[in-house]
User: Which sequence fits this backbone?
């Protein structure tokens, strides 16, 4: 008989720094990849932290499987600031904030 493949149950990597998550996943024999994801304010402590991954936590995967991570990235352009909810909520360097914000 053929033994079933060994699988790994993914933990939740949200909130991890990408390098730490990549190291942990690599040690499990998986093929991790961390990509830029959602935008966050320039000075946000979220920048660089994983906000989601595929497959999700709790999924059983075989060694060599790809695990894709997405981490918050700092918004630095007007277009990116619009994507994260508004200029000043995003912290983009576009001059002084409008009055009342």
Assistant:
């Amino acid at each position: 008989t053929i033994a079933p493949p060994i699988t790994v149950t993914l933990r939740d990597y949200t909130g991890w720094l990408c390098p730490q998550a990549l190291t942990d996943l690599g040690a499990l024999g998986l093929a991790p990849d961390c990509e830029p994801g959602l935008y966050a304010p320039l000075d946000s402590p979220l920048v660089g932290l994983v906000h989601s991954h595929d497959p999700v936590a709790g999924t059983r995967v075989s060694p060599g499987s790809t695990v894709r991570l997405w981490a918050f990235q700092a918004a630095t352009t007007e277009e990116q600031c619009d994507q994260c909810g508004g200029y000043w909520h995003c912290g983009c360097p576009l001059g002084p904030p409008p009055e009342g914000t």
Observations:
- Strands lie at 8-9, 31-40, 50-54, 60-61, 66-74.
